Amino acid sequence: MIFLKREFKFGFSLAEMVATLTIGSMVLVAVLSLYNRTNRSIIKVSKRLDEFEKPREVLQLIAEDLDKSAAGISRMAAPDTTLTIVNKSMDGYHSARLKILKSIRGDNSKEQNFETIIWQADFSIDANGLVLYRSHTGLNVEDKLLDKRRKDWEENYSFIPVCQGVTFFSVEAIIAERKESNWKAKKLPRSVVVTISFTPASRMPDGSVAVAEEAKISRVVSLDRTREIPFQFIEKTEDDKQ
Predict the structure, then answer these.
(1) Could you give the 3-state DSSP secondary structure of residue 183?
(2) 62 and 85 in contact (C-beta within 8 Å)?
(3) Whole-number Å distance between alpha carbons of 151 and 147
């Protein structure tokens, strides 16, 4: 009696392969979709953080320059420091120029420029907005604030581009609780308000650029270091002495 041995070959059928590929594609699409949503959320959060971090960093640099101008001197007696503030419009953008001039008197009692620091924002077509610059000149050539950030091609230029993409830049002096957009005097104001924004602006029909108030970040830098504090002497009574 002859027995025939039947061989069985194990594998996947065409229907199983199609079903597997379909399910795999669905899982892959779901994973990629989740990844794209997560990536977009990360980019949006990072961009949001940059919108707050960059203005604060710039305001800190300006505050350090203003802080040095008021160090050890009073608001009523600052013969060696002249502060100039000018606000203007550049191609519809609100811009400002802050100049801190420190002078010293030589042997012939003639004033000399010891140090001049300028912060100003100028319109740039390439940047499609304002570019914020800083200049440092004078006898005190060492610039501890931004020298490390200079590039090789910037060594021969006094103005250093600090950042671009600025949509609003304003500097105001506070005098008796009143804001002054233009100021030039050796008597320093009580404080200075610096406002900046990097939020994309909207072009208005009249050609001006509008930035929402909530998108502007401000910092108040106090320059009045010797403000008189009112006080009065209180005579001790017999009970207090006991």
Answers:
(1) strand
(2) no
(3) 9
The answer to whether position 13 is within a domain reads: no
pLDDT single digits (tens) 188-203: 888 999 999 998 888 8
User: C-alpha distances in angstroms, 135 versus 14, 40, 82, 219?
Assistant: 74, 38, 16, 21
Q: Name the residue among 138, 140, 167, 162 with its Cα closest to residue 151.
A: 162
Distance of CA 105 to the CA centre of its chain: 35
Can you list the alpha helix ranges (DSSP code H) found in the chain? 14-70, 238-241
Distance between CA atoms of 32 and 112, rounded to whole angstroms? 66
Nearest to 162 by CA among 60, 44, 52: 60
201 close to 210: Cβ distance less than 8 angstroms = yes
The 10s digit of each residue's pLDDT in 11-53 is: 667 777 778 888 888 888 888 877 777 666 555 555 554 556 8
Residue at 156 is within a domain:
yes
Number of domains composing the chain: 1
Extended strands (E) in 125-190: 129-137, 159-166, 168-175, 178-180, 183-185
Q: Is residue 35 part of a domain?
A: no
Cα–Cα distance measured from residue 216 to residue 194, given in angstroms and rounded to the nearest whole number: 10
Residue 164: domain span: 51-222
Q: Distance (Å, rounded) from C-alpha 41 to C-alpha 54?
A: 20
Assigned domain for 189 exists: yes
Give the whole-angstrom CA distance, residue 164 versus residue 167.
Answer: 9
